[in-house]
Each structure stands twice: as C-alpha cells, then as structure tokens.
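dumping the sequnces here before i forget
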Amino acid sequence: MDAEEFRRQGHALVDWIATYLDELEQRPVSSTVAPGQVRAQLPPSPPAAAEPFEDVLADLDRVIVPGLTHWQHPSFFAYFPCNSSYPAILGELAAAGLGVNGMLWATSPAATELETLMCDWMLELLDLPDRFRSTGAGGGVIQGTASEATLCAILAARERATEGRSNRSGTSGRLVAYTTGQAHSSIEKGLRVAGIGSDNLRLVAVDDRFAMRPDALAAAVAADREAGLVPFFVAATAGTTSSLAFDPVPAIADVCRTERLWLHVDAAMAGIAALCPEHRWVHAGVVQADSYCTNPHKWMGINFDCDLFYVADRAALLAALSILPEYLRTAAGDAGAVIDYRDWQVPLGRRFRALKVWFTLRADGPEPARAMIRRHVDLATEVAAWVADDARFELAAPPALNLVCLRHVDGDGATDALVAAANASGAALFTRTVLDGRSALRICIGGRTTERRHVEAAWKLLQQLS
Amino acid sequence: MDAEEFRRQGHALVDWIATYLDELEQRPVSSTVAPGQVRAQLPPSPPAAAEPFEDVLADLDRVIVPGLTHWQHPSFFAYFPCNSSYPAILGELAAAGLGVNGMLWATSPAATELETLMCDWMLELLDLPDRFRSTGAGGGVIQGTASEATLCAILAARERATEGRSNRSGTSGRLVAYTTGQAHSSIEKGLRVAGIGSDNLRLVAVDDRFAMRPDALAAAVAADREAGLVPFFVAATAGTTSSLAFDPVPAIADVCRTERLWLHVDAAMAGIAALCPEHRWVHAGVVQADSYCTNPHKWMGINFDCDLFYVADRAALLAALSILPEYLRTAAGDAGAVIDYRDWQVPLGRRFRALKVWFTLRADGPEPARAMIRRHVDLATEVAAWVADDARFELAAPPALNLVCLRHVDGDGATDALVAAANASGAALFTRTVLDGRSALRICIGGRTTERRHVEAAWKLLQQLS
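..and the predicted 3d for all of it:
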C-alpha cells in the first residue's frame, strides 16, 4: 500500500467506522458465534501475495463484526464500560501514524511532555491532590490498564518496604498485603507476579455494604506483625467491580499512616465521576494515598488503553523500575532534567497515548463527559427505583453511581437463568457476579450513546424474562 | 465531535499523516527542543470548552511534531527500528474504531480467534516450530513488548520450577536465572519484578563475538546447584541489542534439557529476518525452546505495539497467570473450549492488536517485508565494507544482518564525540553503546523507507565528522 492508496483506504475506513458506530444499535450486543467459527471462515495460512484492501474491509463486515461483542453498543451493560469518543479514535490514529516510541524523553520529547501535561490536566479536572502533580515530588503516567498500575504500585511499595533488598536479592516471603474479597483480581495477580504470593494477601472483612472494615484491617496488621511478618501494602477500592462499593479510604489511610503501609487506591471506573463536582466524594481520603489510578478508557470516552497512574513519591517507583544499560543512556536523562517514562512501567517501549487524551479534552472539552456521567447516574437511580418496585427482584447491593446489582427473589437459579436468557437475546448484555455468596446481575450504565430508551428496553427485557 | 465531523476530520487526519510521512525526509531526525520546551508551548490547564479540531491539528504541526524524534524517518539508524506501514496504521484505526476489549474469548470471539490465527500465520511465515502452534499444547499471543513477553516467560518458568508454590507463598530467593551481559535489560527487570532479584541473575561469560559460552553456562549451573540454589531459567538472545550477537541456542538448549531449565529465546528484532528463507539460521535451536518472542513492530512494518510470544506448553503459562473471579466466568471459558487471553499476560484488558497484523499481511502480503529486510541486510554489508576500508574506523563487533557497530580508532573520546556530533546534526540518528568496555556507534538499518542514498549520506556524515 502506497501513500495514495493509504489516503483512499483511510478515508474509506474512517467512513466505515462512522457507519459501524451509527448503525451499531441495530446489531445484537454480543456475538452468537460458536468457538472456532470465526477462524474457520478465514484461510488457515497467510496469503502469498497482496490482496485488494476492499477485500479486507469486506471480510471485516463478513467475518469479524459478527464475531464481536460490541462494547460501544448503547445496550452494553456488562463489566465496566470501555467507551470511546470520536476525537479519541483520531488520537489513536495520529499515534499510529506518527509511529514514535516514547520510552525515553529523548526518543520523542513531545510524547513525554504531553503525557506529563495530560496527567496534570486530568489531576485538575478530577480535583486530585497536588501531591500527585508532576511539578512536585510525585507525578502521573499513562499505563495501559489498572492491572499494570496496581503491579507498579506493589513494586514501588515493595521497594520502599525492603529498602531495595527485594530488587537485589529477591522477595523475602515475609511481606504481607491487604485488600478485601471485593477488590479486583488484579491485586492478587500483581502479588503473584511480584513473587509475594496469594497466601500473603489478607482479605480484610467487609461491612454490609461490601466496604473494608478499618478495624479489621488494623487487627489483621497487628496479628501479622505479632507473627513476625512485614505488612507493606494496602489496596483500597473506590468502586469495586462487583458492586461499586467504596472502601472508607480516610479511615484506612489513618491505619496506613500509623503502620507505615503503602496505600494504593484503585478507582478504575468510579474515579472518573470526579469530573463532576457533586461526585468528588469518590476521592475522599485520596489525599493521603501513596498511589492512585483511574481509567479514562472506562467512563470518559478515551479509548482503551488509557489508565492514569499517580504516585506521591516518584522516587520509590523509579527505584523499583529503573534499569539503565549503556544503549539507553542520554544526556538529558543523565542530567536528571527529564522524565524517562520507561522507569515508570514494566515495559520499555510505549505508544503515544497522551494524544488521545489531548484530542478529546480539546475537541470535546470536559462538558460532554460530565453530561454523560450525570445521565448515567440519573438512569441508574431510576433503575434502582424500578427494582425496588418489582416484587420479583431485590437489590443485591446498595446502588452506587452508575451500577445497580439485583437478584431474583426466587434464588440463584432464577438469577443465573435470567442473566443467561437476557444475554442470549442479544438485546442487551449484563454481567453475573456473586455477592454475599449469592448470584447477582449487574447493570452498569456507561455507554457514550446509552439513552433512557435503552435502559428502559433493558429493564423490560429483564421483566419479560423473569 | 459528532459522526459527521468525525468523517470530515478523520479524512483530514489521514491526509495529514500521509503528508507527514511523505515529507518526513526533509525534517531533522531528532528533536532539538530543550527539556520543558514542548510543555511551555501548551496551556498549563485544560480547556473549559470544546475547541475546533483544526486548532488541534495546527498545534500538532506547531508544537508536537518539532518535539518528536522521527522513528519513521529514513535516516533513523538508532536503537532498533520501530517501523510501520500504511495497512498497519489502518489496522490500529480499525481497532480504535471498533473499541472492543478482547480480555476473554466471550468479550469478542473474533478478537481472540483472529489473534490466534495471526500467531499461527506468523509461525508459518517465520518457519517456527510446530510446538508453538495453537492447535497443539503450545500457542502464541500478541504482547505489547518483548519486555512483557520476557516477564511472562519468567513467570511460567517459575511456576513450573516451584510447582505453583511461588504463586501461593511467594518466591523463595533460591531460584537462579542465566543470561549474558549482552542480553536486554528487560531480563534483569523481569527478574526484579518477579521478586527473584538481580543477585540471582548470572551473567554467563561470552565469547569474542559476544555470544554466550555454553560451557560457562553449564559450569555456572553446576556451581549454583552445588550451593543449594535452584537454577530455573535461561534467556538466550538471537540478536543482542548492542551488537546483534547470536547466542548458540542449540548448545544452550542441550544444557537446558539436561538440567531441566526453561529456555526462553529473545529474538525481538532478528527473528523477523526469518521471513526470508536465507536468514532462517536465526532460529537455530528454537525448536528446543520453551518460549520465544519476536516483534513485528521492530522490523516488519507492523506498528508498535506488536510482540509475538510463543510457548511450547501453554499450561505452565496459564497456571502462572490465571485468576478467575466470578465476574470473569463465562460458559465457553468454563468449558475449556476457548482461549481467554487474559491468562496469557499480566494485564486484564487488551486491544485488538491482531487487526494490524491481518491488515498488513493481506494488503501488502509478505513480499514487501522480505524485500525490505534483504535491502537492509545488503546495505549493512556495504557499510561494513566501507568501515573496513577507512583507516579511521574499525568494527566493534562482527556485523550481522542489518547492524554495524564501529568505533573510532582514536578511542572512546573520538567515538563519543562522533555520536554526539552526528546526532546533533539532525541528518541521521545513531545509538552509542559499549562493547568490550569501549564505546561504539551502532548503525541499525531498519527504516521502511530507508534507501541506499540515506545510508550513503549517513556514512559521509560520519566521515566528515571524524
């Protein structure tokens, strides 16, 4: 493909995407393909010669799209949203077209500096504490996912707790971390990756709202110290995956300060709600956190992958992750005058993710995201009222922001059957979870194009199937 | 931005990218901005309202582009290439436009199945061993970077060596890994992340070609066993970063088989050379490896990020990385009928990276990449001859494929000054490294648009500055 053909096909693909998104509502939300069915429609071996790009686009329609679960569909109520907006799509296109690798400041200063600025812009928009601002001792970085941010937080905490011994001689096995059974699986995964292990993660008891009990945390820490172990890390969640429970971060932070534990706050979806002043309670206590993450790719229309990860003390993070072979040395880096983001993450290379943040914040401004969040929260409030009014259902957790968890009063069998039937219909998509040992159906309202009528239709579907 | 505006601005941005790439040769390769200069040209705070997209594009030209190091520039000879092609850019655009998250098979079957198929296609094109094919006990996955692939290899090896104990109770500190001082920094970084630590990495002696000495490996393993340690992992490099040295993988594999060590082969750039039958020697011994990675984003024109990571026994990888909370359970996953790629990587979420591989292999076919690789290798062979003919220079390592390492005969001061002056000129970009304790200048020829005239000009520049 040459430049002229790129222009032609690029225009065609932009139009194809616009049409895909325009007509998405008419498709089933999730694919009904059987395992292996997509692959079976494609040649088992690569082509020996070039094919017309029109054929590729045709196969996109014929084979790929029917095999997708449409995360941008207005009736997607599953997992968390992973919504995108037009300027963010263009930001990804620009990043791909420029094809620069921002591993060091010197390998593209603008990629690093725009990323730092976007972290500071987002800090202002979310009213995050100044200690995370890049102009002080802390700073932000764009990671791919909250899982990666969590792992980096664990590594920085481990570095601080062991004064660098872990990086030199390995992890001792005496380190202990704390979270709740409601926290995201990435916390346990990160501890496994870091060589700390699942057995050294304490699942602190939760209250009847699925939020961590600070007294139980303090007791668990005391018991571990008594046993000669080394408590080092607490992951609090501002909006859990299953039920959007909010751990009481201020009280947890008090325990962490007393016990000198690293406090990481995972606000992957809910942190974005702080774009709206009335929702800034989601960040209560974050001012005392050592690290924090939230995902514009979840609820702000900035394409996956885009996780904002902030630390109050970047020195700990850099000590954990910095390695400097000769071929990566640069004058600016040696002088300490710049940020080299390779030291803020596990991978070396990095895409120019800041472009999609910049494009979105400038081309749309922050208001459309705020309006969307408010619409979602209003709709969820309505849904919670509908659930309360229907004797067949009950709330499985206190509703929060844009999430409602319900169950069928006839028990797990009925709830599981409802999730399965609703999802098989193709008319909407929900996620099943387990709360208090019982099945629940989550309705997470987060699509950029999700309007009241989609939520109403989803509710009617659930009623009809019950 | 609405759909209509997206179409209009999308066309404009496609044209902007085509023009950027067309005119790239006229720009200096690397930016001359001072630290902070890019940021200073942008507002310190986010806009309160939407701005015309034309203004964003104008700032891309005014602020961002002058702050870039142009990795797609034909006179970029630094690091490794990170080259891209037009269909790959469109693949990224399509992935962003679809906005699906392929964390599970069920969350978009086509994303998973196309990725598996692309790994199998690439396996055929690179003539990799059948044990890495997804239809057997092994399989491939697209990671973001070789660093992430290496970490996953370490975790799978650790899982096998400790029979799962590490994931449960942490890393013992008795595990020992082996590579050479020429291997990529990501191996040491991965061992640190995994809680094994730098002290438990042995840098095995190399021969006069900077390749690992298998006898030294065997001796190091024996000494560690004698000391009561647990050797578990060997990272061999097929094409080191500094000098493109090739560790003797067949002999290393013999040691690994005897000693029951996991063998990972890092062929991040050079593995792609196997697209050409005459270069398939780069994969000697890989048939005995437990895991292997190579990066189409380095030398095949498939945009960063795209690392192919293959394992012979996917069970070890899955055991290391699988965690299954209720909200991620699916019928297809529970039945074991599908691949859930979340278990093949550290992050949970994942972009639809397979699209750019598919677009490139179909729209261009494999021949343009083969022709490009042959051109680069021919040019590097010429450069090596020019170095040999100029009394001011000497080769710092045996030339291999597309890399030539040279030094000035007047010593490190002269070599360092040459690198600095050449890079400051903006006419070309090189990387300095250290080989045998002495400075060297690397000329890595890997640009998609790099022709003989660019290499000649670069050589003349080096001569003029010497």
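Chain B has a mean pLDDT of 96.
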